[in-house]
Amino acid sequence: MNRLSILVVGMLLAACDNSAIQSGVSRDEGLRYTGELRSFRETFITPPAIERVWQFKVLRMAPEGSLVSQGDPVVWFDPSEPRRRLQEQQSQLAQRQQSIQDKALQLDQTLQELRLNLAEAEMNRDKAQLKASINDPVMPEVERRIYQLDAQIAAEKVREIESSIEQQETSAAAEQTVDEAELVRLQARVASMSQGISQMSLTAPQDGILLYQSGFGGEKFAAGSDVYRALAVVSISDLNFIEVRVAVPERDLRAINLEEPVSLKIDSVDDRSWQGRVKSVSTVYRQQNSAVYADVVVEVVDPDPQVMRPGLKAQIRFEEIGQ
């Protein structure tokens, strides 16, 4: 073989070797990618829902990374502000209850007076009607007309008082409906705030490892932090359900199939590997540094809660590639 032939063969071998390195494919090692461990059974804990309380102050938190059991207290909030608001609501409730009682007493007194007036007016009407009904031939016509007019006035007075009683009862019924609705609303608010204050100490909803979450500025919450109601303060990750998300270049995705077996090694753990399977391959692509990637999620088949922690770096090897 002459020098030119040797040079051409060498260039071809180098090109093939370089192509294999760039694609991530190796006959001996298959595809390898790096990702982070995470739990796919993770519960996020937020402050309690207390009406008109939007910000909470953290008093203390259980140590991050500690293993907790369901029901263990993990976060304590300062109850001072919710208690102040509760006192305001309780005061409004007491005022509303007193107002309802005062209105009921006043209505009762008003109706009693009107009914007494009605009884007197009915008596006067009956007397006037009796006089107007006298048929005495010797009675002057003027006097008879006066009696008839008095009877009409007395009857009108009765109707006027009856109308006043009806208006008072109708108005009182409408006010009572409004007052009772407001009373129910205030009672519900007080009950809700009381329940919320009783939940100012949050407990773990499941077994797992406690992880602190971050606020808008990217800093993790700690004792003394102010937390908005919708934000998660901590999370509980179940270490028996671990997966790894890796970004795979588009050129390598065709070599990866669902349920495909993989092996996994954790960077901080020497001489040990675990088994996994391809759980999902994303159909959403993103571009980074002139390359196109998609996420592949690998579920660990034999997780070890004693070793595995969310955030640890892991090397994923797709076993069947290159075989």
TrEMBL record:
<feature type="coiled-coil region">
    <location>
        <begin position="83"/>
        <end position="136"/>
    </location>
</feature>
<dbReference type="GO" id="GO:0030313">
    <property type="term" value="C:cell envelope"/>
</dbReference>
<keyword id="KW-0175">Coiled coil</keyword>
<protein>
    <submittedName>
        <fullName>CusB/HlyD membrane fusion family barrel-sandwich protein</fullName>
    </submittedName>
</protein>
<dbReference type="InterPro" id="IPR050465">
    <property type="entry name" value="UPF0194_transport"/>
</dbReference>
